[in-house]
Every structure is written in C-alpha cells, then in structure tokens.
Amino acid sequence: xxxxxxxxxxxxxxxxxxxxxxxxxxxxxxxxxxxxxxxxxxxxxxxxxxxxxxxxxxxxxxxxxxxxxxxxxxxxxxxxxxxxxxxxxxxxxxxxxxxxxxxxxxxxxxxxxxxxxxxxxxxxxxxxxxxxxxxxxxxxxxxxxxxxxxxxxxxxxxxxxxxxxxxxxxxxxxxxxxxxxxxxxxxxxxxxxxxxxxxxxxxxxxxxxxxxxxxxxxxxxxxxxxxxxxxxxxxxxxxxxxxxxxxxxxxxxxxxxxxxxxxxxxxxxxxxxxxxxxxxxxxxxxxxxxxxxxxxxxxxxxxxxxxxxxx
Length: 311
Fold this sequence. Notes:
Strand content: 5-15%
Radius of gyration: 19 Å
Mean pLDDT: 94
Distance between the termini: 14 Å
Helix content: 40-55%
CATH architecture of the largest domain: 3-Layer(aba) Sandwich
Shape: globular
CATH superfamily of the largest domain: Malonyl-Coenzyme A Acyl Carrier Protein, domain 2
Low-confidence stretches: none
CATH topology of the largest domain: Malonyl-Coenzyme A Acyl Carrier Protein, domain 2
CATH class of the largest domain: Alpha Beta
Strand order of the largest sheet: 2-1-7-8
C-alpha cells in the first residue's frame, strides 16, 4: 500500500467541522488551540458557533488548514501511517507543504490568512464569476474562453477531473462563455457561489502582493514530495516553492493532473483530509481502481482505520 494524502481547499468549509475530533482527540484539540493563539482569534468559536466569518476568505483559509493539519497529525499518531506523496486543492497545497516539512504550522497559518485577505481584496465583489462545466473536453472549453474573452476576459481555472472544468473571469465574459458552451453541447453548467474569479489572471494583483509576503518566508527541504496545482508535477526543490506559490493564485488548478502524477508514481491509496469529500469524487473519476477514503469526523476516521488495517 502506497499512501497519498490530499488536502481540502476553500469551499469545503461548514459550520461544526472538526467538532467531534475537538471533543474526543487531545492531539486535534492541541493543534486547534495552538492555531487560536497564533492567529489571535477564537478558532473553536469560528468553527463551531454560528458566525459569518467562516465564509470570509481571510478566516476560511487558516481554519481549513488548521483542521486539516490537526487531522493529519492525529492519523499519523493513532494509525501509525505516513504518506509517500502529498497534494492539495489550491489552499490545500499549503497544508501539503506543512505535511512535507517545507513550512511550519505557525508560519503556514499566518501565510494563508494573508493570502486569503489578498485574494478577497483583488477583485471587487460582483465583478467576477465562476462556472463549472460538465461533460466537455479541455480543448473545446479553452477555445470557448478565447472567443468569449472578446467580450471580457474569461479563463479555465480548475481542471478538477475528467468531464469537470471550472472557468472564471469577468462576469460578462463568463456569461458569454456560458452561452457558447450551451451551443457547443455542454452536459451541465453550474454557476458557483464564490467571492472572486480565483486562479485566473484577474488575481494578478494578489499574486504580486503575495510574492512580496513569500519573500519574507524561509522554506525548508521537503521530506515528502508535494505535487503542485500549477503544473500537476512534483515541486522540484525548496527553491521552487516560492515561485510556485506566487503563480498558484492566478494560475489554473491542474488537480486532475496532480492525481495522475501520484498514481503514476505508485500511489494506490488516497486519504482526503479536511472538510468534505469533494476530492475523493475527483480521484475516483480519474481511476476507480485506487482506494479512496476521506477523513473529517469519527465515522470516517473509523472507516479509514479499517482501510489501512486491511480489514
């Protein structure tokens, strides 16, 4: 069994995530409480009690990272397993870098909070839009984006899995692309409820400002290979991390390619860590022969325990 950890991205958050672990696992609780100290806000309150901040990017990103790291540490200690490779969806790539040892937990928390704030501020609310496209090939979607960009810029943003690609850009451009995709025979088109057109050139300001922040960060050598969204390949070395994370904010997410790289490297068992099970569905769509289990609560932890024990 060759295990790969994959980490949730923004959009998977929900009120109450991690509550069972917080009340039942000392390891999990220690990491969440440490995150509260580092971030200087009450993370348990954010996660478990009704408030509007959980869906604000500046707070969402460190909350998901903290939960994901806490679950990962719990899995490693209680089940005595470590991953051979790691990847994550957008924000999840930062969690993967923590897992690899390239970033320490405290630095990553502050970094993703700043990243979230920069992303939130990059494009005014209502200017951009994103659209999930089902049942259409990459080359057709890419051509449609080029044509629709004559109205206003629109770009492929997420290559999630075979048959599902998300596009994003200016609202008018996305509307034109939606019209063209309907004409081209798209199986289904789903407008996404997001605060900005992430992973498109509209985030260039956020990328430029994030680069300045990243220049102040010291990265360590990676003890575990991390596959990046930017290329779908393993990050070559410590020196490449800074430029990769700078590009990642405004570059398409090649998650489908990340999974293919991990499978071709021998990973046959994937553990999705963090809120939700979206990545598990993406992985299964890539290859139904691999084993996949997400972990976000006591029930899914028990299922994971059975999987790794071979029962």
